[in-house]
Specification:
The structure is a homodimer.
Chain A lengths: L4 H18 L3 H25 L7 H21 L1 H12 L2 H4 L5 H28 L4 H7 L2 H9 L7 E2 L2 H11 L9 H24 L11 H24 L10 H10 L6 H24 L4 H22 L31 H30 L5 H17 L6 E2 L1 H9 L6 H16 L9 H11 L6 H10 L1 H17 L1 H21 L3 E6 L6 E3 L12 E6 L3 E2 L4 H22 L7 E5 L5 E2 L1 H16 L3 E5 L3 H9 L2 H4 L4 E2 L2 H21 L1
Parallel strand pairs in A: 5-7, 6-8, 7-9, 9-10
Antiparallel strand pairs in A: 1-2, 3-4, 3-5
Chain lengths: 676, 676
């Protein structure tokens, strides 16, 4: 191969030098030359290993995270105008597609936006009641945030507005500090303050490029958490569906079921009938009609709105509200009022509001980025997580100033938006304007809307949050991930939303720790017909080399937590092999232990002490320790700790070279013996 | 090499088959044969990678920890007598050396034991006052635990008894629940209960083979913690040395200094004079005389006892106690009384006692195993951590029943034992008997011993706990470890002992997490003259291969916390390379991205989703993704997730093979073009 030539020229030069100095018989000189050559090559390669440049420190690692920002700032200094345009395009992604926008695309967006609005209006009202806010807050949240997002966000499919999980999170966490039943105004103010904090955190994450924070909820944890949240939300809806008046504030399944069984005598059969019949209608259109006949997709998207209109008419005509069917009653219409003065930064709950804001910010971002990315991949464009976070942050900060609570990308509505054929974020604008018009003119028409129908709208959206096939897949591929998933699920269902989250994150990180410090070792053998070495269990055809034990640490870190265990294990392995070999033949006794360090990313001072102990223990048992393929930080630290000197420089680039070096010294030893 | 023959015979057989079927010209057939051969070899190797056996699950991993125990139980069934003897030898290590024991060794042990006792008596009394117990409890603790350890422990050098750090830990944590000044009896009972729990935990760790728990305190953390504890202990001694009467219960430097400055007017100059002059005397013998003249070692070991005797005489003769010099007064003499009825398992503090017991158990074990192992390595024998834990546990349980508080191996006294020439654990027995005799007959003589002299004995032992050269070494080798070290130190000195410990453990594990999920990638290049690939930064001589990007993940786990970041980074790298290459020549555009998975120990479902996303993103940019050298669990999960199918089986054993496969398909593509 082309790349190996450099080494060859060097070696031929060396061969000449050797020939000039010695001049033995031709055959001898050839052999000598070859030996010398291979030895020089080996020395050269060992120099590569030993004389590495100093690895980058902690500071330069941090720097790489911010380098894109730095480059941009650097560009402004050089070429102000093009750099400014590029920055504007970064902040306002629509600038990059607005030139290609045309009437056809606009038509598609209008259709998608109207479809979205028809689903969004009943859902927004429902989610507002789930968040224990007045219904208009849900509608407000479907106006301002989508407008901001559509000029700052880069996703073309996502549908912005209130979502079920965030609404549940808000009500379950905030009602501990302000009871919405006792003091609804203070509760609303606290929700708005939390929204402001959530937006600030999101924007800060985006600016500081902390996008990776969203990744701390693993895929498995999200699947479990979402399913658990869906169950909890479903249970909460039973109150409205059954028309109960008393209900627990807890969200866990046991409290809810006890509460229901206690107040079951107050249930209202009319509420239940209206709610459940329309629930079946929505499910039927969504899961039967829309799947059978693609053309009926619009009907299924409109079904919630249709249900609201029909049920409102029914209640209005029959005056069922006089028979105990709870209705929405007055919804404050008109534009979003300002809420700057509702934000509370001096209340006793401000610290709590910030904490809740952080949790809500992360959950909202996780949902939005998950949904945004899956549709972006489908259409073949890229989403920048940090940019999305900034857009979400600005939209929620603005929202908190205009009476909106936390908005994010909704799973169910984004799917509807996509299916309705949206082209750009303009569909969000169409939706926002439609909701705004409804707020202005049609809120009075919702006076007789039964609360039960809102419950059935929410219930119908829940199956989309439960992903059984994904859970099955997780079980099949990764049992530990499945544990995270079930822990999140049961934590949410049986204890509380926060505990579920905490369990999921805790187990995920415990898994990382266990995986990285697992004190395993594996014996390596040579793969037949190659110079490769593999785990003898993974590759049963790998062959042992007599007199040599090759071990690899089954961990990326040799550190305080596993170094001593691994030291003891390698020593045991070596002594065991020595005993076994001693029975077979004395010559093949293990004399060399090669530690393959190729997958050790880092070591610490504790582990260097363990290696030193291993070295002296092996020496006292007549074995030598050699290292193969240490990585950058590892060899750097070993050199600083003078460990390389202690093992007389037995550090090699490959296992093969370590073996060769050992054979050479053994043969030399043998020949010196015969000569004597 | 010998091992490659198998592959060769197979290939010649194959070559024959090929020749029979086609029969072209000789040169052609040779080339074809070779191509076919190398292809078959490649297929075979890829089968090795893809058709691995199922990796062991979680359960079998746990099983390996207990396998030694299982083997032993299995042996009993087969050969009862030899197995029983081996078990007895395991439990009572002296059985294995008692046959070789002789008079010479016994003489050495007696000398060492007497030296040890002379140091141990003043230290024990001092540490008991540090633990806020009556002085006799320190002496009791130097009798029973050393006796038990000498028949169960396997270290021959360790000196067992009360130690400074554990005494400090006990008093600082227990006095929160019972004030020793207000209710000394209840306080003592709580200390004994904590001792019982500590012993139980230690024995349980030993039996359950949880020896690795001790490793959770990294070397760096211990260095910092010990130095911090030494400072705190030194500060505490200022009370006795200055003869102050009022003193804070807090251990942090700020509280202690404030407290001293407040009550400085009550200081007693006589106390200070006696204490400090003997402190200087002890230090002088220890650090000057003993180092200059090896023969004076005995004097330095005896210096504390001499100081006690001299100062007691001085106080007795001058009746300095009437001038405010605090004296020990009455010490209860006689044998250890039983304390079974002092253990409290129904008190309101039992849960706290268990918690403190756990912390103390771990700290005591850490100190004992560290000191025991360092001397074992020096003399060339091995210590089994689990066995040591069992011995320590039994000794502390027995201790708690006989009025002893937590005992462990002492740094300073072990060094003295070693220097005095101890041969076996018999020196501990000699020491225990000597202490017992003193308890029986000489406690009355200590009536006039000034408290200040105990403080100076403790103070003189502290420099041994501060290891500056080790701290320097840690700074040089590992900056992050140094952070752990300083955090432990400042935590202990400025806040409290527990906070220091917590900080050290917390930072250590945070470091593990950061190291294992760091979202780094590195570009690989071919090392000149070899088929090896290395990080282009670590090996600046490594060369890029045109048209191919080779990346390795700088982490052992591709998991929820870093998968997405890494996916984005690899994509960016690939697009960047493509753009660069496009300027140079269109032919050399990156078409293949090889992901070297050799150091990925595990993946999870989140990361598989990220890999799928990466694959489709690369495809849409005209690049293909190939994997090289995936490990056992990784390839197993990728197969289960059907990812191997998605990338059309482009999984190879080595990077070289992946490149070759790509070149072959490229050439074939080129030739088919020319033919058309």
């Amino acid at each position: 191969m082309a790349v190996s030539r450099e080494g060859e020229t060097e070696s031929s030069h060396l061969a000449q030098t050797v020939e000039e100095t010695t001049r033995p018989t031709f055959a001898e000189s050839q052999k000598n030359t070859f030996d010398q050559f291979s030895q020089t090559l080996q020395t050269q390669r060992r120099n590569w290993v030993l004389n590495v440049p100093e690895p980058p420190g902690l500071f330069s690692k941090l720097k790489t995270i911010f380098s894109p920002l730095e480059n941009k700032l650097h560009c402004i200094g050089k070429q102000p105008l093009p750099a400014l345009i590029s920055i504007l395009k970064t902040i306002f992604p629509p600038l990059s597609w607005c030139k290609q926008y045309n009437v056809t695309k606009f038509k598609s967006d209008i259709l998608a936006g109207l479809t979205l609005a028809s689903l969004c209006i009943p859902q927004s009202i429902g989610y507002a009641t789930l968040a224990k806010l007045d219904p208009q807050y849900g509608l407000y949240t479907s106006v301002i945030p989508p407008l901001i997002y559509s000029i700052m966000g880069s996703s073309r499919d996502i549908a912005i507005g209130p979502v079920a999980v965030v609404s549940l999170l808000l009500s379950s966490m905030i009602q501990k500090f302000e009871d919405p039943a006792v003091n609804p105004a203070a509760y609303t103010k606290l929700v708005l303050t939390v929204t402001f904090f959530a937006g600030t955190f999101q924007a800060a994450f985006g600016l500081l490029r902390l996008g990776f924070l969203v990744d701390f909820l693993s895929h498995a944890a999200i699947v479990g958490f979402m399913a658990g949240a869906a169950c909890v939300i479903g249970l909460q809806q039973l109150k409205s569906l059954l028309g109960l008046s008393k209900f627990t504030n807890n969200t866990d399944i046991i409290s809810v079921l006890t509460s229901i069984s206690k107040s079951m005598h107050t249930w209202n059969p009319f509420s239940f009938m209206i709610g459940s019949s329309f629930f079946i209608f929505i499910l039927f259109t969504k899961y039967y009609l829309a799947r059978k006949h693609k053309k009926l997709f619009l009907l299924s998207a409109m079904a919630p709105l249709l249900s609201v209109i029909l049920s409102t008419l029914i209640v209005f005509l029959t005056r069922a509200d006089k028979h105990g069917v709870k209705i929405v009653k007055h919804i404050t219409g008109g534009l979003n009022p300002t809420s700057i003065h509702d934000l509370q930064f001096n209340s006793p709950h401000t610290a709590e509001a910030a904490k809740i804001g952080l949790i809500v910010a992360l959950i909202a971002l996780t949902e939005a980025i998950a949904v945004g990315r899956s549709f972006a991949t489908m259409k073949g464009y890229r989403l920048d997580g940090n940019k999305e976070m900034l857009a979400m942050g600005v939209m929620n900060i603005t929202g908190s100033l205009t009476s909106c609570y936390v908005a994010t990308g909704s799973f169910s509505r984004t799917a509807v938006n996509f299916s309705a054929g949206c082209e750009t974020a303009v569909s969000n604008i169409v939706m926002a304007v439609t909701v705004l018009i409804s707020l202005e003119f049609f809120t009075r028409l919702l006076y007789f809307t039964p609360i039960a129908i809102l419950a059935s709208v929410i219930l119908a959206a829940l199956p989309g949050l439960i992903n059984l096939s994904e859970a099955k897949y997780i079980w099949k591929v990764d049992k530990m991930d499945f544990l995270t998933c079930t822990a999140a699920f049961f934590g949410v269902v049986f204890v509380s939303v926060e505990i579920g989250l905490l369990l999921a994150v805790g187990i995920s990180f415990a898994k990382v720790i266990l995986n990285s410090i697992q004190p395993g070792t594996e014996k390596l053998g040579r793969l037949p017909g190659s110079d490769l070495f593999g785990d003898v269990n993974q590759y049963p055809m790998a062959m042992k080399i007599p007199g040599i034990l090759i071990v690899r640490v089954k961990s990326a870190l040799l550190c305080f937590a596993n170094a001593d265990f691994i030291r003891a294990k390698i020593l045991d392995l070596a002594l065991e092999e020595q005993n076994e070999d001693a029975i077979e033949s004395a010559e093949d006794r293990v004399q060399l232990v090669i530690l393959d360090m190729s997958n050790l990313l880092n070591i610490d001072t504790t582990s260097i002490a363990s290696l030193e102990e291993l070295h002296s223990e092996l020496e006292s048992n007549g074995m030598k320790l050699a290292l193969a393929n240490p990585r950058w930080h590892v060899i750097h630290k070993l050199r600083l700790a003078k460990f390389v000197k202690k093992i007389e420089g037995r550090v090699f680039l490959t296992i093969g070279e370590a073996i060769e070096a050992c054979f050479t010294s053994k043969n030399m030893h043998a020949s010196s013996l015969t000569v004597v």
